[in-house]
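Hi R.,

Here's the chain you asked about this morning:
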Amino acid sequence: MSRARVLVMNSALGPLDYRVPHGMQVEPGSIVIAPLGPRQLVGVVWEPERMPSDAEVGDNRLRNLIGVFPAAPLTAPLRRLIEWTADYYLAPPAAVARMALASSSALEGAKTVTEYRATGLVPDRVTPQREQALEQIGTHQGLIRELAAIGNVSDAVIRGLAKVGALEQAVRSAEQLVKSTRRSFEAGSRTLVDILNAEQQLQSTRRDLAQARYLYLISRVRLQALAGGDKEAVITELNGWLAGG
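And here is the predicted structure, written out as tokens:
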């Protein structure tokens, strides 16, 4: 499949066509990430004959899909139920499909945090505060507020250094943040409060992800019940999700 009809999760839009990049495998029901202007939207690949589009364009004008979520595609019976519900209640298909994707957070991995570290670049304009911050930060890496505390300067000074390229972003997962904070604590560069803050952020991330997955599962079960699906198949699908997550 080199061209895909995608029902993007925006009720104001109809289905849109996208190019499937080489090496990407999609099928009807696949949950994908599609570009729309500067934004990225979650969408579901649909059969073109069942989801007509008023915005068809030539192949040379198609934009590439960005990615495919590692989740099971929406089954054909579920897609037929979404079509029927949208037609019966005169609702946008995207609004109904969103019920099967209660939260895109359930499709995402662990959340990340953005830390900063020195690049070695000396900015053209070096104020006493910037010079002090860079000297104190050294090889440390951390959040803006943490580097501000290390350098004994305001958050604005750290943001200014990042803006001029003296500091660079380092995206890390919440789990990595906890591990690195513990190592820094053992080395004497972090405090016990830093560890507790990192642990709190990790637990908050896990809670949000668990809640999102719960809402996703409940929505799938409700839709399958409305569709009159095989109960054993639904239970098997639930067990697979729970065992894997």
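One quick note: The mean pLDDT is 80.

Cheers,
M.
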